[in-house]
Amino acid sequence: MSNGSTFPPPRRRRGTVLLVLAAVALVAVGGWLFWRQAGGHGGPTARGGSPAPGRTAGGGTGAGGGPDRSTDHGGTHRPGGKGDPHGSLKGRTVVIDPGHNPHNSRHTGQIARLVNIGTARKGCDTTGTATNDGYPEASFTLDVARRVRTLLEDQGAKVVLTQDGDRSYGPCVDERAAIGNKAHADAAVSIHADGSAAGNRGFHVILPARVSAGPADTAAITGPSRQLGERLADRFRAVTGSARSNYIGDGTGLDVRGDLGGLNLSTVPKVFIECGNMRDAKDAAQLTDGGWRQKAARGITEGITDFLTR
């Protein structure tokens, strides 16, 4: 309609109607796109309303992006995230000590050198044990240590490994303790697997005894180390389903020793964990399984996290 006094020719009226309908359609489409980009689809958005790069609307992996690291291989939620300022372990330092070294067997002279552990002089290091099929303890400990490192870093922790397969042998037991001390670690865990007789099954955690001799003085760490050990044993049992040792610790899964340099010389809370018995076929079947080693790493990580955040 023009000024209300006359009607336009019929052809022109149809054209106007079509233009109005086209305008309405454009407004509707534009409104829908604005609603979708503003978050109506439920996905994360970046500046300008675009989906966050590298992630799909559901928060998983998107084109060109990395994996969603909020869950591990078993789908268990991990608090915080790598680089996340709200990670539960941000500002914490953890030392992980993979027992022995895959190369120790080629350096028997060097690892036999005696070092002072306070209560005695003992060999620098040993080759460790192995399963009956030849899977070395040193390979097991390094694999689990690397998995633990990843899980702890995902929660914001600074993680120091005493060795990462990058040394020709060792380090010696006194140096392993010194690494944790120098890092001022909030917690330190030495990862091992036992070499006992067949039929002896399960895991156990070794706590430092009260020692005061030479360079060793554990008075300040026996209490917190016991707390670390108890929580580590609880979480390792819960996550892996493994039983506490049936041959050490009277069913507690805890042992106290004063003959280990890695514990005697530590000035930070520290424990050893023997994750199972490599010389027992049933335990060995778990220790050689990658899926079980991931559970072991998660159990160790949860024990450390429980100790540091409770």
Automatic annotation (TrEMBL):
Gene3D superfamilies: Zn-dependent exopeptidases. One of its GO terms (molecular function) is N-acetylmuramoyl-L-alanine amidase activity. The chain crosses the membrane at residues 16-35. Pfam families: Amidase_3 (PF01520). The keyword DNA-binding does not apply. This is N-acetylmuramoyl-L-alanine amidase. The keyword Mitochondrion does not apply. InterPro entries: MurNAc-LAA_cat, N-acetylmuramoyl_amidase_3. Residues 177-305 form the MurNAc-LAA domain. It comes from Streptomyces bugieae. Residues 69-87 have a biased composition (Basic and acidic residues).
